[in-house]
Amino acid sequence: DVKVTQSSRYLVKRTGEKVFLECVQDMDHENMFWYRQDPGLGLRLIYFSYDVKMKEKGDIPEGYSVSREKKERFSLILESASTNQTSMYLCASSYARDTQYFGPGTRLTVL
Amino acid sequence: LAKTTQPISMDSYEGQEVNITCSHNNIATNDYITWYQQFPSQGPRFIIQGYKTKVTNEVASLFIPADRKSSTLSLPRVSLSDTAVYYCLVGDDSNSGYALNFGKGTSLLVTP
Predict the structure, then answer these.
(1) How would you write the pLDDT of chain B (112 residues) with one tens digit per residue?
(2) Which member of A18, A60, A83, B15 has the greatest number of CB atoms within 10 A?
(3) 36-55 of B, contacting A, C-beta below 8 A
């Protein structure tokens, strides 16, 4: 079975802090994704990566950056966290573009 | 903005068949339609995928008409444990290569 893990289930940070969310997959998938999920808005794509050091903006990249130095690891970075970035963050990986395997999510609260 | 449209919520009793329809007018020629299920405090999980006509697995069936501008997820004889949010995923040919669009999801509540 594909396993996608995220570094934290719950995280509390203060406004202005730099925040790193880590995601690791163990199936040698080329594609990795970061989403955020908010009530009433569904899943929204922040960034995705189709290869090491490659990245593409999703629907809502503002305020976020990503890093993919190794194939199995995809990091989401909030350079200066703000309260409107309080959300559930979900990482996914895939071989094919559509069949994605999700991690358990990180619930981030920015105070 | 999401490029798919689903009902926001649906209610059903145990044992009934539930059909959830997703509209996707801009589906690309080579794109598949994929449905995911999400329970509270968990990431979504894949349940079924299709390109045209009908696909069936042990969990659900997926019906896709010839024009592929919509799809219907069918859950036979639902149980309480089918209470979840269901997402429809299709490719998007209005953006470059890898743009992906989840619907906003349909929240299904199954009651006794």
Answers:
(1) 347 889 999 999 999 999 999 998 888 887 888 899 999 888 899 899 898 999 999 999 999 999 999 999 999 999 999 999 999 988 654 444 455 666 678 999 999 9
(2) A60
(3) 36, 41-46, 49
